[in-house]
Specification:
Subcellular location: Cell outer membrane
Number of helices: 5
Number of strands: 36
Mean pLDDT: 87
Largest sheet: 22 strands, antiparallel, barrel
Radius of gyration: 24 Å
Helix content: under 10%
Membrane topology: Multi-pass membrane protein
Low-confidence stretches: 1-28
Shape: globular
CATH topology: Maltoporin, Chain A
CATH superfamily: TonB-dependent receptor, beta-barrel domain
Keywords: Cell outer membrane, Membrane, Receptor, Signal, TonB box, Transmembrane, Transmembrane beta strand, Transport
Family: Belongs to the TonB-dependent receptor family.
Protein name: TonB-dependent receptor
């Protein structure tokens, strides 16, 4: 199987290299400004951070799909469950790490979930793609810039803002397989010193049976497990003075879903309702062009009601976030960033030992960084954060990140960074918790190069990384408890290729390799080491080819390969856990767009075109076969 994965990798690279020999527009966008790498606008050529941008155009070609679908096509990211029933939870794995090591931000502010069992990262099912302007993916340990949990990377979802005239209406409507319906409607605009964006999205589907029928049952009548979701977003930009801009925001999302009783186990009485409220204020003050002061304040509330044969569980989690920081241009080549951040998490939970108590944690962390900006091609970041935690004392994290740009054609970069992560409230205080858990500490290393070849017609990036964690926390089914392992060691490689070999033709390819092992004491005084990347393949790859046939017609296809991996299967009690090897699989998707006017277009999505149902994404759970969605999108 490794041989097949390697062959796929070389095939992807060969296609892109061959295509790049033709004439094209520029691929490299070194002068593009991004915000996630350093928390303020900075050219990509001036940072050694490994950053991927999913543009508004790419998102527009994913109407009818989800944020999870889009992320699943990026190098080093695996969204487990993305091919399963739409109501199934989505598990984010970034560079082999679980979702607890990858914070998700909205416009630079963490969207947290204090009810999370193993992670405070937000449930991806809450997030519709319709209100997203672009997504910036920052790879590697970023605890200096973004605090606890930012060990594998950062995903920053940047929402749509006001339009270019007083009123712009936009929306889309799609129908699809399994009686799916998705629609969105919004208004955005700008008048004098105020801009605004309002949007609403509704999605519903009957879905398929979440649990897969056992092979021993012929023609089982497993029921469908559907989901209904509504999301609303609003943000307003107010230019209060010449230098001060305020942006209050509100995001609300809820869904109701049905789910089954476990692998191969149907259930008709299980249902869940989940709600997210994320609201706050962003403030930016311009320092006469020499820098900015920023203030971010937010409040999140997540509630969940779960009903099953085991009873009813109500969860209520609150998260508070406040941050003030400033960036300043000391000279033409030297910049500084200084800030302080406060976080607080609370959870009210019937799973607590004390059901009437409130469990909480908080921390305050000042941080600072210096940046050398393109000093004869040399750029450098040196940063540190001092976290004062309510339960785990004081912890220091750092970042060292040099890069060098050679003749605007080749950028080489490296990074050494450390991270700190406290246990979640659930891991500490629930009936599965262990109040004596230690915090986790990480050290990560990465190095790579990005080349802009053939007169900037080919963009190639390769990155190798290594990540070491001490006292890593995991749930142990055999004991039904969270516990600390001795250490976790992960390593990997990512290759990304982009080319525009001819007018209207674009080719993108990615390949990622990851491997990891945990070391723990099997018996007192004796360590044992084994691979523990459950549901995470060693090899993944994607190939996307898009072509603008005419000014009206655009077509693209995406081929995704997922390598072999294994899953842990828990059969009915008292049978012991089984390790189940999962075969590699490949899926093929297509997108067609016909723009019959500058402000309206028809679109068609076809997923899993080969109707591949003979693979496991999660052992014992169904996967979608061939499915389609079609509809209309408009802007007025």
């Amino acid at each position: 199987m490794k041989k097949k994965s390697t062959m796929l990798t070389f095939s992807l690279l060969a296609i892109c290299y061959a295509a790049s020999a033709q004439d094209s527009a520029q691929v490299s966008q070194l002068n593009t400004f991004v915000v996630t790498a350093t928390k303020f606008a900075k050219k990509q050529s001036e940072t050694g951070k490994v950053l991927t941008v999913i543009t508004s155009r790419q998102l527009a070609q994913n109407i009818g799909r989800s944020v999870a679908d889009v992320l699943n096509e990026q190098a080093g990211i695996v969204i487990n469950g993305v091919g399963s029933n739409p109501g199934k939870n989505r598990e984010l794995y970034f560079r082999g790490a679980t979702s607890q090591y990858t914070p998700i931000l909205m416009d630079g502010i963490p969207v947290a979930d204090a009810t999370g069992l193993t992670s405070s990262a937000i449930d991806l099912r809450f997030l519709p793609v319709d209100q997203v302007e672009r997504i910036e993916i920052l790879r590697g340990t970023q605890s200096t810039m973004y605090g606890a949990d930012a060990i594998a990377g950062i995903i920053n979802i940047i929402t749509k803002k006001g339009g270019d005239k007083p009123v712009n209406a936009f929306g889309d409507l799609a129908w699809g397989s399994n009686r799916s319906l998705k629609g969105s409607l919004g208004l955005r605009g700008q008048q004098n010193n105020v801009d605004y964006n309002l949007g609403f999205t509704h999605y519903e589907t009957d879905g398929i049976s979440e649990a897969a029928p056992p092979d021993s049952i012929r023609d089982p009548h497993y029921d469908r497990d559907g989901i209904k979701q509504n999301s609303f977003t609003a943000n307003v930009g107010i230019q209060a003075t010449e230098h001060l801009k305020l942006r209050p925001f509100l995001f609300y999302s809820n869904y109701k879903s049905l789910y089954d009783g476990g692998p191969f186990v149907d259930a008709i009485e299980n249902k869940n309702q989940s709600d997210l409220l994320h609201t706050g204020l962003r403030a930016d003050y311009d320092l006469n062009g020499n820098g900015q002061l920023h203030g971010n304040f937010s409040y999140q509330k997540v509630t969940r009601r779960d009903e099953s044969a085991w009873g009813i569980t109500n969860l209520d989690g609150r998260s508070y976030f406040g941050e003030v920081y400033g960036n300043y241009n000391i000279t033409g080549w030297l910049q500084a960033l200084v800030g302080v951040e406060y976080r607080k998490s609370q959870m009210f939970d019937t799973a607590y030992r004390d059901p009437y108590g409130i469990r909480e944690m908080h921390n305050t962390s000042p941080y600072a960084a210096l940046f050398i900006k393109d000093l004869h091609g040399f750029s450098f970041e040196l940063g540190g954060r001092y976290t004062m935690h309510s339960q785990y004392g004081n912890n220091f994290t750092y970042t060292i990140n040099p890069s060098y740009l050679i003749s605007d054609k080749l950028k080489i970069f490296a990074s050494v960074a450390s991270g700190f992560k406290a246990p979640t409230l659930t891991a500490l205080y629930s009936i599965w918790g262990s109040p004596d858990l230690k915090p986790e500490h990480a050290t990560s290393f990465e190095a790579g190069a990005q080349a802009f070849l053939l007169n900037d017609k080919l963009n190639l990036r390769a990155v190798a990384f290594k990540r070491d964690l001490k006292d890593v926390i995991a749930f142990i089914p055999q004991t039904n408890r969270y516990t600390n392992f001795n250490q976790q060691n992960d390593k990997g490689l990512e290759i990304e290729v982009a080319a525009q070999p001819a007018k209207g033709l674009s080719v993108r390819a990615t390949y990622a390799y990851v491997d990891g092992e945990v070391t723990t004491q099997a018996t007192p005084g004796k360590d044992t080491t084994y691979n523990n990347l459950v549901r995470r393949p060693n090899h993944t790859g994607t190939l996307n080819v898009g072509y603008q046939f005419t000014k009206h017609l655009f077509v693209s296809t995406t081929l995704r390969h997922t390598g072999t991996r294994y899953d842990q299967y828990y059969p009915p009690f008292p049978q012991p856990m089984e390790i189940m090897p999962l075969d590699a699989y490949t899926t093929l998707d297509a997108y067609v767009e016909y723009r019959f006017s500058p402000k309206a277009n028809l679109f068609f999505n076809a997923n899993n075109i080969t109707n591949n149902k003979k693979y496991w994404e999660i052992y014992g759970y169904s996967v979608l076969g061939f499915n389609v969605a079609a509809g209309i999108s408009f802007t007025l």
